[in-house]
Write a structure and sequence with these properties.
alpha/beta, 11 strands, 21% strand, globular
């Protein structure tokens, strides 16, 4: 049995991102993507900028943020940026269609959607039916009349103090399509990420800071762990593939 003895106040973004900088890995590669090599220091800055953007958009503690993004650095910035702000990111299955996205938006009551421009046609079909959605942030060259992710991050402050979340607060949701009647949202706590990293990434896989991990589909539970937080738990490098 793993006993982590976590303090009541715990924010997973501080552990998986900021800790690597604090422990001297700021210059080390955290993410490799196409021709980009993104250091832990750069990752921490992007996460902070994203957290500031979400705050500016009115996202508060426990608000959900739907992420419809491919396996890109922006996905990881958005995921940890939301967590650091005390919000709850929801990586959505990019293989689904407009009715599913509408269901997730309304069921989660997410006030903000961060979407890759390539998926805009599906979102455009249901935008007027998203009851709780207030802001749409688009990743890509064409923002389709909405907010540009790159422009917002460029203007945002690179420093951010993590929200005072607890180890048992919700860190992220994942919707499962196993129920044929409707999608089911599974809640994952901040502490769950660390327990999983300790028990599986370290205990079973034996991951270390010398490793490079390459997974697929960050919207799946295993893909998210293998690509977005197992490597960061040990100061390793994740390799992302743009599908």
């Amino acid at each position: 049995m793993i006993e982590l003895n976590l303090s009541r106040q715990f924010n997973a973004a501080e552990y998986f991102v900021d800790r690597n900088v604090t422990e001297g890995r700021g210059a080390k590669a955290a993410i490799m993507y196409e021709d980009q090599v993104i250091s832990y220091g750069r990752l921490a800055e992007k996460v902070n900028r994203t957290a500031n953007v979400l705050n500016q958009l009115g996202v508060g503690m426990e608000n959900r943020v739907l992420l419809l993004l491919r396996d890109t650095p922006e996905m990881i910035y958005s995921f940890y940026g939301a967590i650091k702000a005390g919000a709850v990111p929801i990586p959505a299955n990019i293989l689904m269609k407009a009715p599913d996205f509408l269901y997730m938006l309304n069921d989660s009551r997410a006030p903000v959607l961060i979407v890759d421009a390539v998926f805009w046609p599906e979102i455009d079909k249901i935008l007027d039916q998203a009851v709780f959605l207030k802001s749409v942030v688009v990743v890509g060259e064409q923002a389709h009349g909405h907010l540009s992710f790159d422009e917002l991050l460029e203007k945002a402050d690179p420093a951010f103090k993590a929200a005072a979340t607890t180890a048992d607060d919700a860190a992220f949701w994942l919707y499962s399509g196993r129920n044929p009647e409707k999608l089911m949202g599974a809640v994952h706590h901040h502490s769950h990420m660390l327990y999983c990293a300790e028990a599986y990434a370290k205990g079973i896989l034996g991951m270390s800071d010398a490793d490079r991990a390459m997974g697929s589909f960050l919207f799946f539970a295993y893909g998210l762990g293998n690509g977005a937080y197992f490597p960061f738990a040990v100061g390793a490098t994740t390799i992302l593939i743009n599908h």
